[in-house]
């Protein structure tokens, strides 16, 4: 099964399960399999690749850790193609960021470019259910109406942006913004001495921007939504910096990647 490496590149010897995992990925690509499709049974994969049951199971476990398949046991068990969840992607990104000096300023510099276009692009596609979800999110993050604690309100601020992302038809822009949102939701921490009044002020300002964005979106004014979101991102960056917000990186263990996903944020779409 091993192939000759291209000339000029160092030789890297892969373990047999890793080689099988690569071949299964190639099989998924060649057969154009989609989430929900079943892989061949273990015995069929054994025969196809000429390896032991243990090697097949180790290869499938590797793909499960990557989020590419789910594995079931029993007579009808085996591998099923899965759509890699955002949580899993973030977990691998966290491992990368652990060794990088990524700051809140870096994150918001990117958000200031992307979020206005994301929101403007979502405007023509927002449904009544989306607007209902957006209004609910505002109520949850507004200190005047929310019964949640202040940090939960800050996470709900991010959910508002996820709802807009879900309505945007550009899959790569949507993925990039959702990934950043997930980073902010899970990794951002604030200075211990940040007074509650600062959190409250931040929440009130966010809720007001969100209301204005929803109002403009209901009027299908994409240009105004873009302008409001740009101003919102500038204000948010300033506020988070004032509150000594920072990204807290940590390594993710393989065992953690196999836990169930967190509850999905409120969305306007099924």
Would you report the number of β strands? 4
Class based on secondary structure composition and strand pairing: mainly alpha
Question: Radius of gyration from the CA trace?
Answer: 22 Å
List the strand order in the largest sheet: 1-2
Low-pLDDT runs: 255-270
Proportion of residues in β-strands: under 5%
**Can you give the mean pLDDT?**
82
Largest beta-sheet characterization = 2 strands, antiparallel
What's the end-to-end separation, in Å? 43 Å
Helix content: 55-70%
What's the quaternary structure here? single chain
Globally, the shape reads elongated
What does this structure look like?
The protein is mainly α and 270 residues long. The protein has helices at 16-30, 42-49, 53-65, 86-97, 104-122, 128-141, 150-167, 171-187, 196-218, 222-242, 254-257, and strands spanning 69-72, 78-81, 188-189, 246-247. Strands 1-2 form a two-stranded antiparallel sheet. A two-stranded antiparallel ribbon has the order 3-4. Helix 7 runs antiparallel to helix 8. The protein is elongated, with a radius of gyration of 22 Å. The model is unreliable at 255-270 (pLDDT under 50).
In short:
The chain has eleven helices and four strands.
Provide the fold topology.
Elements: H1 16-30, H2 42-49, H3 53-65, E1 69-72, E2 78-81, H4 86-97, H5 104-122, H6 128-141, H7 150-167, H8 171-187, E3 188-189, H9 196-218, H10 222-242, E4 246-247, H11 254-257
Antiparallel strand pairs: 1-2, 3-4
Helix pairs in contact: 1-3, 2-3, 4-8, 5-7, 5-8, 5-10, 6-7, 6-9, 7-8, 7-9, 9-10
């Amino acid at each position: 099964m091993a192939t000759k490496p291209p000339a000029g590149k160092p030789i890297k010897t892969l373990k047999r399960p890793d080689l099988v995992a690569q071949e299964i990925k190639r099989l998924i690509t060649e057969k154009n399999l989609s989430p929900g499709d079943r892989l061949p049974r273990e015995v069929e994969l054994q025969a196809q690749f000429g390896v032991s049951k243990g090697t097949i199971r180790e290869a499938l476990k590797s793909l499960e850790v990557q989020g590419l398949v789910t594995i079931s046991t029993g007579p009808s068990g085996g591998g099923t193609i899965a759509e890699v969840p955002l949580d899993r992607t973030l977990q691998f990104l966290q491992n990368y960021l652990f060794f990088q000096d990524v700051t809140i300023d870096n994150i918001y510099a990117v958000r200031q470019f992307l979020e206005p276009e994301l929101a403007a692009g979502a405007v023509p596609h927002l449904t009544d259910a989306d607007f209902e979800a957006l209004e609910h999110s505002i109520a949850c993050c507004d200190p005047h109406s929310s019964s949640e604690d202040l940090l939960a309100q800050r996470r709900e601020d991010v959910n508002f942006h996820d709802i807009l992302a879900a309505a945007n038809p550009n899959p790569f822009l949507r993925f990039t913004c959702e990934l950043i949102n997930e980073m902010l939701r899970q990794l951002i921490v604030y200075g211990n001495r940040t007074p509650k009044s600062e959190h409250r002020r931040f929440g009130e300002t966010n809720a007001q921007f969100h209301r204005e964005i929803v109002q403009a979106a209901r009027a299908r004014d994409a240009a105004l939504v873009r302008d409001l979101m740009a101003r919102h991102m500038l204000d948010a960056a300033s506020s988070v910096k004032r509150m000594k917000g920072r990204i807290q990186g940590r390594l993710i263990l393989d065992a953690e990647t196999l836990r169930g996903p967190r509850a999905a944020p409120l969305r306007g779409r099924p």
